[in-house]
Specification:
5% of the residues lie in helices and 57% in strands. By secondary structure, it is mainly beta. The termini are far apart. Bound molecules: zinc ion. Zinc ion binds next to loops.
């Protein structure tokens, strides 16, 4: 896999995948800014609610939460942001 974009954006979280096909140039707070798009996904070790250990797919992936916006380092003198969708999970034990 090519980590070029992750390196460029200085993303430290290996669970973040950037959409390399899409970048927008839009005004944010009156300044033209670069908007990148990405997803945060991983397999949880345990359920956050009931604490069951996720060793037999008890905690399953369940779509994505609405975007949150993360401020990135300035790129070519332009402010840059990452719109991040976060993985949602569903626990079969506690619901
Ligand atoms: Zn649970």
């Amino acid at each position: 896999m090519n980590h070029f974009i992750e390196k460029t954006l200085q993303l430290k979280d290996p669970n973040i995948t950037i959409d390399t096909e899409k970048v927008d140039e839009v005004k944010v707070n009156g300044r033209f800014s670069l908007i990148y798009y990405g997803k945060l996904s991983y397999t949880p070790k345990a359920c956050e609610c009931c604490g069951i250990i996720n060793n037999a797919f008890q905690v399953v992936k369940n779509g994505y939460r609405t975007d949150s916006r993360i401020t990135l380092n300035t790129i070519s003198a332009m402010p840059a942001y990452l719109k991040l969708k976060k993985q949602r999970f569903s626990c079969r034990e506690c619901g």
